[in-house]
């Protein structure tokens, strides 16, 4: 009777043991390197077979969400800046109108002062005094 060869099975078991040890060390390293929040992503990677298909979809979704948020922020910022520029122009126009009114009122007041002086001179010459 032939004796079953244990030598053939032992190297296979030894190789499997090495793989188990390396896999265990990798898992331990992942636990030590990654914080608790990222452990969930490691579990997902193990569940997908390490292909990263799940993470790629999530990453693309995050990039798309970031891009949309960035574009919306730019549009809102542009609208706000345009509104502020519009208000500045309107305020400048109102200030110009007020300045022109003040200048015309100043001219009117000076004209009234001149007329008042003429009347006072005329009344003092005519001899009518208060």
TrEMBL record:
One family name in Pfam for this protein: DUF4577
Keyword S-adenosyl-L-methionine: no
Transmembrane segment boundaries: 65-89
Tagged with keyword Heme: no
Residues covered by region (Disordered): 36-59
Alphabetic keyword roster: Membrane, Transmembrane, Transmembrane helix
Top-level lineage group: Eukaryota
InterPro entries: DUF4577
Protein name: LSME1 protein
Taxonomic classification: Eukaryota, Metazoa, Chordata, Craniata, Vertebrata
Gene that specifies this protein: Lsmem1
